[in-house]
C-alpha cells in the first residue's frame, strides 16, 4: 500500500502480451496492495492515460516504438511516479538501467524477480525521486525551497531548479546559474547527494548537469553536451550508455 494506506495505482505500457499477462495477473492477486489502472499495448494511448491520471508506478517497455526516456520522464509532472522499465535480455540495456535511478525487469519476466520488485515497492511506500519537470523534493539543506550554498562570506540561497550545472574543482564546486557562478567549499559529491537525481545527472566525474538546460549533444572527442549558456561539457566514458538511454538516443 501507499503512504495513505490505499492500494498503489499501477499502469502497464507494453506491447508484449506475455509480459502483460504475467504482470497483470500478479498485480490482480495482490489487489490489497496494488490497483491495476490499465494495460496499454499502444505507447501513445498509455502516455495519454498517464498524463490524464498519473499513477504511482508505471511498468514501461523500454523498446516500444517512439519511446524516449526523456519524453516519458516528463509526462507525470507534479506527482511522484516510479518507472520500472521492461527490457529483453540485453547486457547494455539492463546494466544501463540498473545503474540509473530507475528499476528494471528482464523479459521473460521471472515470477520471483517480479515479486521481489513488488515487495520493494510496498516496503518503500513508493517514495521515488520526483520525475523531471516536477518540483524537487525538499531536503534538509533547503530553506523555503532554496539550497543554501556556503560561501566565504556567508550563505547564498539558490533555487535548485535554476542550477544549470555543477563543476568539481578538487575540494571545491563551481555552481553555475543563469544569474552567475558561485565557488563553494564543498566536494561535488555533496551536491550529487542533495540534488534530485531525476532532474540532475552526473555526466562526468567533474560535472553534474541539469537536464533542463541541455541545448544539444555533439559527437566530438567521445561526446559533449552543449548547455543553453554555450558551455560545452564532456560526457564521461562510463556515463555514455546511461545518458543515451535516458535521452532516448
Q: What would a concise description of this structure say?
A:
The chain is α/β, with parallel strands linked by helices. The protein has seven helices and 16 strands.
Question: Can you describe what's shown?
Answer:
This protein is α/β, with parallel strands linked by helices and 249 residues long. The protein has 2 domains: 8-123, 3-Layer(aba) Sandwich (Rossmann fold), CATH 3.40.50.2300; 142-247, OB fold (Dihydrolipoamide Acetyltransferase, E2P). 25% of the residues lie in helices and 32% in strands. The protein has a 5-stranded parallel beta sheet, with helices on both faces.
Largest sheet: 5 strands, parallel
For this structure, what is the CATH homologous superfamily of the largest domain?
A: Response regulator
| CATH top level label of the largest domain | Alpha Beta
Helix count, DSSP H or I runs of 4 or more residues: 7
User: Helix/strand-derived class?
Assistant: alpha/beta
Give the secondary structure arrangement, pairings included.
Elements: E1 8-13, H1 17-29, E2 34-40, H2 43-52, E3 57-61, H3 69-73, E4 82-88, H4 91-98, E5 103-107, H5 111-123, E6 142-143, E7 146-151, E8 154-158, E9 165-169, E10 172-177, E11 180-184, H6 188-192, E12 200-204, E13 207-210, E14 214-218, E15 224-227, E16 232-234, H7 240-247
Parallel strand pairs: 1-2, 1-3, 3-4, 4-5
Antiparallel strand pairs: 6-7, 7-8, 9-10, 9-13, 10-11, 12-13, 14-15, 15-16
Amino acid at each position: 500500500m501507499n503512504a495513505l494506506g490505499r492500494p498503489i495505482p499501477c499502469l502497464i505500457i507494453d506491447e508484449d502480451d506475455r509480459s502483460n499477462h504475467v504482470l497483470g495477473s500478479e498485480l490482480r492477486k495482490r489487489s490489497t496492495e496494488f490497483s491495476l489502472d490499465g494495460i496499454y499495448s499502444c505507447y501513445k494511448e498509455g502516455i495519454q492515460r498517464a498524463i490524464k491520471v498519473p499513477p504511482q508506478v508505471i511498468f514501461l517497455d523500454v523498446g516500444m516504438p517512439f519511446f524516449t526516456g526523456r519524453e516519458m520522464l516528463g509526462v507525470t509532472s507534479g506527482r511522484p511516479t516510479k518507472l520500472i522499465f521492461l527490457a529483453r535480455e540485453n547486457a547494455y540495456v539492463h546494466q544501463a538501467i540498473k545503474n540509473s535511478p530507475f528499476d528494471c525487469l528482464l523479459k521473460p519476466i521471472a515470477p520471483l524477480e517480479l515479486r521481489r520488485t513488488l515487495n520493494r515497492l510496498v516496503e518503500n511506500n513508493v517514495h521515488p525521486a520526483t520525475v523531471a519537470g516536477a518540483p524537487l523534493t525538499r531536503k534538509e539543506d533547503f530553506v523555503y525551497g532554496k539550497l543554501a550554498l556556503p560561501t566565504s562570506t556567508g550563505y547564498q540561497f539558490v533555487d535548485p531548479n535554476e542550477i544549470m550545472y555543477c563543476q568539481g574543482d578538487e575540494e571545491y564546486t563551481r555552481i553555475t546559474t543563469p544569474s552567475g557562478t558561485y565557488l563553494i567549499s564543498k566536494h561535488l559529491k555533496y551536491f550529487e547527494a542533495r540534488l534530485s537525481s531525476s532532474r540532475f545527472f552526473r555526466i562526468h566525474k567533474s560535472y553534474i548537469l541539469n537536464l533542463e538546460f541541455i541545448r544539444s549533444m555533439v559527437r566530438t572527442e567521445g561526446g559533449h553536451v552543449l548547455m543553453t549558456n554555450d558551455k560545452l561539457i564532456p560526457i564521461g566514458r562510463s556515463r555514455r550508455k546511461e545518458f543515451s538511454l535516458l535521452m532516448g538516443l
